[in-house]
Amino acid sequence: MITQNKRLAGIVLAVVVLLFIPLVAMQFTHEVNWSIFDFAVAGVLLLGTGLLCELVLRKVSIRKNQILLCMIILAILLLVWAELAVGIFGSPIAGS
Predict the structure, then answer these.
(1) Which residues in the chain come in under a pLDDT of 50?
(2) Exposed, middle or buried, 15 (CB in 10 Å: 0-12/13-18/19+)?
(3) 3-state DSSP call for residue 24?
(4) From residue 73, how far is each of 26, 52, 69 by CA, in Å?
(5) pLDDT digits (tens, 9 = 90+) for 16-26
(6) What is the maximal distance between C-alpha atoms in the chain?
(7) Of 37, 49, 38, 40, nearest to 11 (Cα)?
(8) Are 32 and 25 in contact (CB under 8 A)?
(9) Which contacts of 7-14 are long-range, i.e. CB under 8 A and separated by 24 or more positions?
């Protein structure tokens, strides 16, 4: 149980560290201009992905299936992130 809690804390810490990168970049350049909404969306996407992978690791017992499911979850994260960033599919969530 201790290992699972450490992994969960690691996920939250990783999300916080990743969100600090654009926050720090905003202090040095005007090219990075995130709003509170951008941070919230990024936080939900990253934390949701981390928690889904954690759920897979806890509930699926076959290692091969764990890796496959986590790779699918990460691929979905990357597709949603790319759609939000540049609108590669032209969906309404991209702002176009």
Answers:
(1) none
(2) buried
(3) helix
(4) 29, 8, 6
(5) 999 999 999 99
(6) 47
(7) 49
(8) yes
(9) 7/54, 7/57, 8/54, 11/47, 11/50, 11/51, 11/53, 11/54, 12/47, 12/50, 14/46, 14/50
Residue with the two structure tokens 């691929």: 75
Place of tokens 């999300």: 15
Residue 59, number of CB atoms within 10 A of its CB: 9
- As separate numbers, helices (DSSP H) first and strands (DSSP E) second, the chain gives 3, 0
Alpha-carbon span 79 to 35, nearest angstrom: 21
pTM value? 0.87
- Which element (helix H / strand E) includes 30? none
